[in-house]
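Narrative of activities, Objective 1.

The group set out to show that a structural description can be obtained from nothing but a protein's sequence at a throughput compatible with the screening campaign. Below is one input-output pair from the validation batch, recorded exactly as produced.
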Amino acid sequence: MVIRVGMLGTSPGNGHPFSYSAIINGYDAEGLEQCGWPVIHEYISRRDPADFGVAELRVTHAWTQDPVITRALCRAAGIGQAVSRPEAMLGDVDAVIVARDDVDSHRPLAEPFLAAGLPVLIDKPLTLDRRELDFFTPYLIAGQLMTGSAMRYAVELDRVRGRLDILGELKLVRGTILNDWAKYGIHLLEAGLSLVAARPCSVTALPGAHAGVAILLDDGTRFTIDALGRVSPLFELELFGSEGCSRHSIVDNFTMFRRMLWAFACMVREGRPAIAPAATLDVLRTLIAGQEALHGHREVRVHE
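Output recorded for this entry:
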């Protein structure tokens, strides 16, 4: 049975509406090449035709703020219906993906669909506001809302996922990313926290010319993340243990996106959270605490 999906929104510097739609539907080679996202065109066009399609999902409707972009998206990914406003999809789709990564847009776009009982996937980061997180929390718990970074599913982490014992006693987790903490910190929070059993307790801002934080986990392990600003694409995760270390450069966007979309399809089909709500809340509360720590140059408790 086809799960009809609506794709919602676009934001500067974020090509996820195009990449997600192409992974689910397949793509039109000329349309994708001309859509203005050469990096996405490059990694999508390298894949075998057998790699496309995600469970029963099918993007059938699309809306963005710009009708020109909406038409380009529909052409690139074979989406049949371009709508003039998001709510026009209600009654014609089974689920929606909010593919904007600007946090202020998330609640206004998602709320009509959540209120209607539809499953929703919201791009990262969901919110940087604790009170808004309280609004979204019941939907996370109910298995109606999924959110986060696809780096939770990075293929590069498969060697240690569920097998951290090969490193012995974990001493330190260290992540390095490009750009800023507010929008990019969540990538390595998802990647790192999804590997460990310990939960975050507090976040302290680190001194220096770029944004950096030290996250204290409840077993005493330290997890540091450095956001280097404007540098070449960089998503690095390192784990250091008593018996060895493991270093990972995360570069395979296609596979992590496809895995995340597969998890979303399972949530839609089964009506259960794709990710344990406590894990998603840990990530988001740590992200918010990090933002507060960087602004106040202090230690912030994650569960304040």
